[in-house]
Amino acid sequence: MSSEEDRPPKAQEDRLLSTEEAAPRSTREEASQGTRERDALLAEAIGLRERGSREEARDRLLVLSARHPDDPEIAYQTAWAHDVLGLEAEAVPYYEKALAAGAEGLGAEERRGVFLGLGSTYRILGRHEAAVATLRRGTEEYPEDGSLRAFLAMALYNTGRHHDSTRILLRLLAQTSTDPFVREYREAIEYYAEDLDRVE
User: Whole-angstrom Cα distance, residue 75 to residue 68?
Assistant: First the structure.
């Protein structure tokens, strides 16, 4: 424990405190500026993709990904940029990185997009069991999302599970169709979807 004599003079103590306070503030300002720059560059890249400049968007996102390798939002957008160019195999590691960030890493809309993007990409690449596992996880987290269920049905078909695939599609049809004739027989469709071999 220090004595009173060991303590620095008041003016020196004030300077030390002032320096200590300034350092964190400076670090915070730099971090804030870095975040603003990252957000602006990401928005530019997304805008390029949306306007049809897909190659340029991909190039920008690759640079951003190298700068921010642990950023799930950038990983997701980079995956998407590859996907729209038909570069599915190159998209996979970015989708996987985005998904690995967990529910805290992305907003609900983006996380839904990752499940759909990665699941459908696995399916296109012939990785059907991985597609089923990914899309099933997606439907468990977002049971109201019909597109995830539709793509899960496709992946199940590819694995030979035709009964499961058809059941999902029939349920989806019964729950979401606006066709008045489908709606009239909704209960029957849902009933038989549970067991397609049922005849009574």
Answer: 9
